[in-house]
Amino acid sequence: MALPAVDEDAPLVTPSPQSFDVVKHFGALLERDDPMPAPVAAMEALAELVSRSDSSTIQELLALLRQASAQIAASSFNPVSAQSGTSLFLRFLTLQRPPPEMSFREFKAELVSRAREFVRDSGKCRATIAAHMSNFIQDGNTLLVHSYSRVVIQALLYAAQTQKKRFQVYVTESRPFGLGLKTHAVLTEAGIPCIVVLDSAVAYIMSKCDLAVVGAEAVCESGGLVNFIGGYQMAIAAKAMGKPFYALAESFKFTRLFPLSQYDIPSSLPSAPLAFPEFDDPVSTKSTSVPPTPVRPMIHSKMPEALEMSDEATRHNPILDYTTPDHITLIVSDIGVMTPSGVSDALLAVYAE
Which GO terms describe its cellular component (predicted)? Predict the structure, then answer.
């Protein structure tokens, strides 16, 4: 499902005394070595925009923030996470009832202050989730985790270092970025036995695991998860083999999105992933040489040089997938442990008129 077209170069409708590019600021927050979660970065970007704006009424400020939110989503690699943050910020703004004696400048300053307090405290959500998740990790367990997730890492470190539980972890490589290698490095440094498995080996290794644990880019109103590609196949394998599948996610990642299939996830890409080119497209008829088959004939033979997808081919593949709620055992959040059906109640508490 494509996002509505937005002119990212259009000037924001505010006579700001200082030049400020909200999209560039959002991108800078995500490009740090240990970046903010996308929803939190989106809220911080909007708070910075409010602090610089010359809006003099709620209507002007809302128009400014809605346009900025659309620009952030349209330019984001993962618009779903960004939208959960911007939606929460806009909802917070519409619920404010400043006292009559407060000037609008003071109101904006108060709004920015409270938004930044939320940004600073967002890390506490992970500590709460780690404490909740510790009830499901037992001594001697073998876990399968997917890719790299801050909240999953913190939950595992809490169980190992604070509760002194002993367990071992398999982590998916998580192509195309290899994020599982970062998880492996963090857990190994902490003394937790960890092995990286190929994404294609998830079903192979699942029978050796006691539970599967993933983070989430977003938790949908349906109770399903938007996650880095590969999460759905892990959930399918876990259900097929009778293994519990736990999703760890902060409540600010809950979003009013109700996808019916993989192909309903909002995307900023110009075309759908894995779409075949038209037959008259020159790219589709371009001849390519057939490479030699990588082989390792003998046990002492050196590993063959692997064939690799081109950058163009990788870009045509999906980066996110949707895990349907029927494959999820429990969602562990800072607001409690819930079944997938509980997500809609949590969203209703925030967005109900």
Answer: cytosol; eukaryotic translation initiation factor 2B complex
